[in-house]
Amino acid sequence: MPSTFNEKCYELLMQIPKGKVVTYGDIAHALGTKAYQAVGNAMGANPNPIVVPCHRVIKGNGEIGNYALGIGKKIELLQNEGIEICNNKVVNFKACRFVFPPKLM
DNA sequence: ATGTTGACCTAGA
DNA sequence: CTCTAGGCCAACA
Fold first, then answer.
1. pLDDT of amino acid A3
2. A9 is annotated as an active-site residue
3. How much of chain A exceeds pLDDT 90, in percent?
4. Low-confidence residues of chain A, pLDDT below 70?
């Protein structure tokens, strides 16, 4: 059970399938808030970069953004997922954009 | 409670 | 394209 905001972000990140990417804004929106920066901060806090695929999170304009282990590492991971990267930007980024499942109610 | 910072976003010039 | 300005929220000192 998530106790802090970052925990919620990690939960969403783990829901992202392979070969898909999301933006910080999408995560914030999925959480029902606009704390884009809070999401980025949560990634920066990244306590377990293994169970949490933070490398699948990019900026809203298609750029890679940043990564705790380094941008280069993030690019390699994304390419390893099958995503094309060029000049620190995602190719066909909207085609790889993943949408979180809406909350049933 | 206050002030600062941050892996951000949008708009305007 | 680059730069400036505003907004928006959570974590930390």
1. 79
2. no
3. 71
4. 47, 103-105
Q: CB-based contacts with strand C under 7 Å?
A: A 4-6, 33-38, 41-42, 45
Strand B footprint nucleotides (protein C-beta < 7 Å): 5-10
| CA→C1' distance for A40 and C13 (Å) | 20
Encode pLDDT of A42-66 as tens digits: 998 876 888 899 999 999 999 999 9
**Nearest one of A28, A83, A34, A35 to A55, comparing CA atoms:** A83
CB A33 under 7 Å to nucleic chain B: no
Of the residues A9, A54, A86, A96, which is catalytic? A54
SS (H, E, C) chain A: CCCCHHHHHHHHHHCCCCCCEEEHHHHHHHCCCCCHHHHHHHHHHCCCCCCCCHHHEECCCCECCCCCCCHHHHHHHHHHHCCCEECCEECCHHHHECCCCCCCC
